Amino acid sequence: MSGETKTAEIVRKFYALLQDQNYEDLADLCHEDFTFRSQIDTPFYGSAGLIAAERRNFEAFPDFQFPIEALFVNRDEAATYMTFEGTHTGGEYAGIPATGRRIRISIMQYLKIKDGKIIEKRAHIDVNDILKQLQGS
User: Which residues form a coiled coil (predicted)?
Assistant: First the structure.
């Protein structure tokens, strides 16, 4: 199996585990030096940081889905384009109580692989677009 094929396989598995909220296996797929950076570049360290951040998304949007629409791989790096869709029926998001509104946004993510595990994830989203949709504007 080529390095790029292996990278693509790891990335697809990562997002499948996240979608299933299989946090134990997701943690196993993260490198011990894993770092997650959100849009504003605030780092979350280790798999525990990633899982805490992602749990908040599922709490606010219990039905959220994020299928991979495009996956680009270059050796041990990958970029994904996804559409995030979910209904705000759970907990707060950015201080906004559940609105019952459905949101749909695009997400670009960068991932780096080391030793067969994900060592870095960067998510690039338009948070203002989410807030506008939640506020009905």
Answer: none
- Which CATH code is given to the segment(s) 3-135? 3.10.450.50
What are 98-124's pLDDT values in tens digits?
A: 999 999 999 999 999 999 999 999 999
| Cβ 68 vs Cβ 82: under 8 Å | yes
Q: What is the DSSP letter of 97?
A: P
Task: Name residues whose C-beta falls within 8 Å of residue 8's C-beta, 6 or more positions apart in sequence.
Answer: 71, 73, 78
| Domain coordinates in residue numbering, the chain | 3-135
Whole-structure pTM value: 0.92
Beta strands of the chain (E only): which ranges? 30-37, 43-45, 68-74, 77-87, 102-114, 117-124
Distance CA 84, CA 79 (A): 15
- CA–CA separation, 83 and 81 (whole Å): 7
How long is the chain?
Answer: 137
